[in-house]
Amino acid sequence: MKYPSFKDLILFENDDYIVVNKPPFVASLDERGGSGEVNILRLAKQYSADAQVCHRLDKETSGAIIIAKTPEAYRSVAMQFEKRKVNKVYHAVVDGQFTFNELFIDLPILNDGNKSVTIDRKEGKRAETIFNSIKNYRHYTLVECKPITGRMHQIRIHLATQRAAIAGDDMYRGKPVFLSSMKKGYRIAKDDEELPIMKRFALHARHLVFKGLDGADIVIEAPYPKDFATLIKLLDKFDA
Protein backbone atom coordinates (compact mmCIF):
# COMPACT_ATOMS: atom_id res chain seq x y z
CA MET A 1 0.00 0.00 0.00
CA LYS A 2 1.30 3.44 -0.94
CA TYR A 3 1.40 5.79 2.02
CA PRO A 4 0.68 9.46 1.49
CA SER A 5 3.15 12.13 2.48
CA PHE A 6 2.33 13.42 5.97
CA LYS A 7 2.45 17.02 4.73
CA ASP A 8 -0.29 16.26 2.21
CA LEU A 9 -2.59 15.10 5.02
CA ILE A 10 -2.37 18.33 7.04
CA LEU A 11 -5.62 20.30 7.31
CA PHE A 12 -4.42 22.74 9.99
CA GLU A 13 -1.18 23.55 11.77
CA ASN A 14 -0.01 26.09 14.34
CA ASP A 15 2.74 26.06 17.00
CA ASP A 16 0.77 23.67 19.23
CA TYR A 17 -1.35 21.42 17.01
CA ILE A 18 -1.51 19.64 13.70
CA VAL A 19 -4.83 18.28 12.42
CA VAL A 20 -4.60 15.70 9.64
CA ASN A 21 -7.14 14.02 7.38
CA LYS A 22 -6.39 10.36 8.20
CA PRO A 23 -6.65 8.09 5.17
CA PRO A 24 -8.55 4.81 5.50
CA PHE A 25 -6.53 1.67 6.36
CA VAL A 26 -3.88 3.60 8.31
CA ALA A 27 -3.94 2.98 12.08
CA SER A 28 -3.94 5.98 14.44
CA LEU A 29 -1.38 4.50 16.86
CA ASP A 30 0.99 1.55 17.11
CA GLU A 31 -1.18 -1.55 17.22
CA ARG A 32 -0.66 -4.19 19.90
CA GLY A 33 2.13 -6.55 19.06
CA GLY A 34 3.87 -3.74 17.15
CA SER A 35 3.61 -5.00 13.57
CA GLY A 36 5.87 -2.17 12.42
CA GLU A 37 3.13 -0.85 10.14
CA VAL A 38 3.08 2.81 9.24
CA ASN A 39 0.59 4.72 11.38
CA ILE A 40 -0.38 8.34 12.04
CA LEU A 41 1.69 8.56 15.24
CA ARG A 42 4.88 7.40 13.50
CA LEU A 43 4.36 9.73 10.55
CA ALA A 44 3.68 12.62 12.95
CA LYS A 45 6.84 11.96 15.00
CA GLN A 46 8.96 12.05 11.84
CA TYR A 47 7.45 15.46 11.13
CA SER A 48 7.52 16.85 14.68
CA ALA A 49 9.61 14.96 17.25
CA ASP A 50 7.33 15.39 20.31
CA ALA A 51 4.08 14.74 18.46
CA GLN A 52 1.32 12.87 20.31
CA VAL A 53 -1.94 11.66 18.77
CA CYS A 54 -4.77 13.02 20.98
CA HIS A 55 -7.52 10.50 20.09
CA ARG A 56 -7.95 7.60 17.73
CA LEU A 57 -10.10 6.60 14.79
CA ASP A 58 -10.76 2.99 13.76
CA LYS A 59 -8.26 1.87 11.13
CA GLU A 60 -10.90 1.86 8.38
CA THR A 61 -12.40 5.20 9.40
CA SER A 62 -11.06 8.25 7.58
CA GLY A 63 -11.08 11.87 8.69
CA ALA A 64 -9.91 14.53 11.10
CA ILE A 65 -7.51 13.59 13.87
CA ILE A 66 -5.77 15.98 16.31
CA ILE A 67 -2.03 15.75 16.99
CA ALA A 68 -0.37 17.80 19.76
CA LYS A 69 3.17 19.10 19.28
CA THR A 70 3.89 19.68 23.00
CA PRO A 71 2.93 18.02 26.30
CA GLU A 72 1.00 21.17 27.29
CA ALA A 73 -1.03 21.09 24.07
CA TYR A 74 -1.71 17.35 24.59
CA ARG A 75 -2.95 17.92 28.16
CA SER A 76 -5.25 20.71 27.04
CA VAL A 77 -7.00 18.57 24.38
CA ALA A 78 -7.08 15.52 26.69
CA MET A 79 -9.00 17.64 29.23
CA GLN A 80 -11.36 18.89 26.51
CA PHE A 81 -12.10 15.29 25.48
CA GLU A 82 -12.60 14.26 29.10
CA LYS A 83 -15.04 17.11 29.71
CA ARG A 84 -16.76 16.38 26.37
CA LYS A 85 -15.94 19.82 25.05
CA VAL A 86 -14.62 18.61 21.68
CA ASN A 87 -17.34 18.84 19.04
CA LYS A 88 -17.09 15.86 16.65
CA VAL A 89 -19.27 15.18 13.61
CA TYR A 90 -19.00 12.07 11.45
CA HIS A 91 -20.71 11.19 8.18
CA ALA A 92 -21.85 7.62 7.51
CA VAL A 93 -23.69 5.92 4.67
CA VAL A 94 -26.13 3.36 6.07
CA ASP A 95 -28.12 0.52 4.48
CA GLY A 96 -31.77 1.51 4.01
CA GLN A 97 -33.87 4.67 4.23
CA PHE A 98 -34.02 6.41 7.59
CA THR A 99 -35.30 9.76 8.77
CA PHE A 100 -33.32 10.61 11.87
CA ASN A 101 -34.14 13.99 13.37
CA GLU A 102 -31.94 14.66 16.43
CA LEU A 103 -32.31 10.97 17.33
CA PHE A 104 -30.59 10.56 20.71
CA ILE A 105 -29.19 7.11 21.47
CA ASP A 106 -28.11 6.49 25.05
CA LEU A 107 -27.02 2.84 25.23
CA PRO A 108 -24.04 1.72 27.37
CA ILE A 109 -21.20 -0.06 25.62
CA LEU A 110 -19.05 -2.85 27.02
CA ASN A 111 -15.62 -3.26 25.45
CA ASP A 112 -14.36 -6.77 26.18
CA GLY A 113 -10.88 -5.82 24.95
CA ASN A 114 -11.09 -8.28 22.10
CA LYS A 115 -11.87 -5.71 19.39
CA SER A 116 -15.53 -6.48 19.91
CA VAL A 117 -18.04 -4.37 21.77
CA THR A 118 -21.60 -5.02 22.90
CA ILE A 119 -24.50 -3.06 24.30
CA ASP A 120 -24.62 -3.93 27.99
CA ARG A 121 -26.99 -2.05 30.28
CA LYS A 122 -25.44 -3.48 33.44
CA GLU A 123 -21.68 -3.57 32.83
CA GLY A 124 -21.34 -1.12 29.92
CA LYS A 125 -19.98 2.43 30.05
CA ARG A 126 -22.27 5.30 29.19
CA ALA A 127 -22.37 6.04 25.46
CA GLU A 128 -24.43 8.77 23.79
CA THR A 129 -24.78 9.71 20.12
CA ILE A 130 -27.09 12.06 18.19
CA PHE A 131 -28.09 11.15 14.61
CA ASN A 132 -29.54 13.27 11.81
CA SER A 133 -30.33 12.20 8.24
CA ILE A 134 -28.55 14.44 5.71
CA LYS A 135 -29.81 12.88 2.48
CA ASN A 136 -32.08 9.98 1.59
CA TYR A 137 -31.37 7.80 -1.41
CA ARG A 138 -33.53 4.94 -2.65
CA HIS A 139 -31.51 2.26 -0.86
CA TYR A 140 -29.20 4.23 1.44
CA THR A 141 -29.08 7.23 3.76
CA LEU A 142 -26.25 9.68 4.38
CA VAL A 143 -26.30 10.27 8.14
CA GLU A 144 -24.65 12.88 10.38
CA CYS A 145 -23.42 11.28 13.62
CA LYS A 146 -22.50 13.35 16.68
CA PRO A 147 -20.88 11.23 19.40
CA ILE A 148 -21.03 12.91 22.80
CA THR A 149 -18.93 10.21 24.46
CA GLY A 150 -16.02 8.44 22.75
CA ARG A 151 -16.42 4.69 23.14
CA MET A 152 -14.88 2.16 20.80
CA HIS A 153 -17.14 1.44 17.77
CA GLN A 154 -19.76 3.73 19.34
CA ILE A 155 -21.27 5.15 16.13
CA ARG A 156 -21.16 1.77 14.40
CA ILE A 157 -22.95 -0.17 17.15
CA HIS A 158 -25.44 2.61 17.94
CA LEU A 159 -26.49 2.73 14.28
CA ALA A 160 -26.73 -1.07 14.22
CA THR A 161 -29.22 -0.94 17.14
CA GLN A 162 -31.49 1.11 14.85
CA ARG A 163 -31.16 -1.51 12.09
CA ALA A 164 -29.18 1.12 10.20
CA ALA A 165 -25.84 -0.67 9.84
CA ILE A 166 -23.10 1.29 8.08
CA ALA A 167 -22.61 0.13 4.50
CA GLY A 168 -19.70 -2.30 4.31
CA ASP A 169 -19.48 -2.81 8.09
CA ASP A 170 -19.67 -6.60 8.18
CA MET A 171 -18.95 -6.68 11.94
CA TYR A 172 -22.38 -5.08 12.48
CA ARG A 173 -24.19 -6.68 9.52
CA GLY A 174 -23.62 -3.84 7.08
CA LYS A 175 -23.49 -4.97 3.45
CA PRO A 176 -21.00 -3.68 0.87
CA VAL A 177 -22.34 -1.40 -1.88
CA PHE A 178 -22.16 -2.71 -5.45
CA LEU A 179 -22.78 -0.57 -8.51
CA SER A 180 -24.91 -3.39 -9.98
CA SER A 181 -27.42 -2.95 -7.14
CA MET A 182 -28.33 0.59 -8.27
CA LYS A 183 -27.30 1.06 -11.89
CA LYS A 184 -29.92 -0.37 -14.24
CA GLY A 185 -28.56 -2.65 -16.93
CA TYR A 186 -25.14 -2.87 -15.27
CA ARG A 187 -23.32 -5.89 -16.66
CA ILE A 188 -20.06 -7.44 -15.63
CA ALA A 189 -17.89 -9.64 -17.83
CA LYS A 190 -18.55 -13.34 -17.32
CA ASP A 191 -15.28 -14.20 -15.59
CA ASP A 192 -14.95 -10.99 -13.62
CA GLU A 193 -15.97 -10.59 -10.02
CA GLU A 194 -17.66 -7.32 -9.13
CA LEU A 195 -15.87 -5.40 -6.39
CA PRO A 196 -17.69 -3.18 -3.91
CA ILE A 197 -17.51 0.59 -4.48
CA MET A 198 -15.78 0.94 -1.10
CA LYS A 199 -13.45 -1.69 0.34
CA ARG A 200 -14.28 -0.60 3.90
CA PHE A 201 -17.22 0.66 5.94
CA ALA A 202 -18.50 4.10 4.97
CA LEU A 203 -17.58 6.26 8.00
CA HIS A 204 -15.68 9.56 7.91
CA ALA A 205 -14.77 12.04 10.68
CA ARG A 206 -15.99 15.14 8.87
CA HIS A 207 -15.95 18.02 11.34
CA LEU A 208 -14.06 18.89 14.52
CA VAL A 209 -14.05 21.90 16.85
CA PHE A 210 -11.70 22.26 19.82
CA LYS A 211 -9.97 25.11 21.65
CA GLY A 212 -6.37 26.12 21.05
CA LEU A 213 -4.11 27.07 23.96
CA ASP A 214 -5.16 30.72 23.44
CA GLY A 215 -8.80 29.76 24.08
CA ALA A 216 -9.90 30.41 20.48
CA ASP A 217 -11.91 27.77 18.59
CA ILE A 218 -10.08 25.70 16.01
CA VAL A 219 -12.66 24.60 13.43
CA ILE A 220 -11.78 21.76 11.06
CA GLU A 221 -13.60 20.41 8.01
CA ALA A 222 -12.10 17.20 6.56
CA PRO A 223 -12.90 16.58 2.88
CA TYR A 224 -14.10 13.09 1.95
CA PRO A 225 -11.33 10.76 0.76
CA LYS A 226 -11.58 9.45 -2.78
CA ASP A 227 -13.50 6.24 -1.99
CA PHE A 228 -16.17 8.00 0.12
CA ALA A 229 -16.53 10.83 -2.43
CA THR A 230 -16.94 8.25 -5.22
CA LEU A 231 -19.66 6.43 -3.27
CA ILE A 232 -21.60 9.68 -2.73
CA LYS A 233 -21.19 10.64 -6.39
CA LEU A 234 -22.52 7.26 -7.57
CA LEU A 235 -25.43 7.38 -5.11
CA ASP A 236 -26.29 10.88 -6.34
CA LYS A 237 -26.20 9.65 -9.92
CA PHE A 238 -27.86 6.23 -9.71
CA ASP A 239 -29.72 5.96 -6.39
CA ALA A 240 -31.28 9.41 -5.93
Name the descriptors.
Pseudouridine synthase, single chain, ten-stranded mixed β-sheet, globular, two-stranded antiparallel ribbon, 12 strands, 19% helix, 240 residues, alpha+beta
Account of the protein in words:
There is one protein chain. The chain is globular and about 55 Å long. A hairpin with a 5-residue loop joins strand 7 and strand 8. With 240 residues, the protein is an alpha+beta fold. The protein has five helices and twelve strands.
Map the helices and strands.
Elements: H1 6-9, E1 10-13, E2 17-22, H2 40-47, E3 52-53, E4 62-68, H3 71-82, E5 87-95, E6 103-106, E7 109-111, E8 117-119, E9 128-136, E10 140-147, H4 154-161, E11 203-211, E12 217-221, H5 226-238
Parallel strand pairs: 4-11
Antiparallel strand pairs: 1-2, 2-4, 3-4, 5-10, 5-11, 6-9, 7-8, 9-10, 11-12
Fourth-tier CATH superfamily name:
Pseudouridine synthase
- Strand-residue fraction? 25-35%
Tally of DSSP β-strands: 12
The helix-and-strand class reads alpha+beta
Helix content: 10-25%
CATH fold annotation: Pseudouridine synthase
Order of helices and strands: HEEHEEHEEEEEEHEEH
Coarse morphology: globular
**Low-pLDDT ranges:** none
CATH class: Alpha Beta
In CATH terms, what is the architecture? 2-Layer Sandwich
Query: Strand count, sense and closure of the main sheet?
Result: 10 strands, mixed
- How many domains make up the coordinates? 1
Mean of the pLDDT scores? 94
Q: State the end-to-end CA separation.
A: 33 Å
Oligomer description: single chain
Q: Any idea what the radius of gyration is?
A: 19 Å
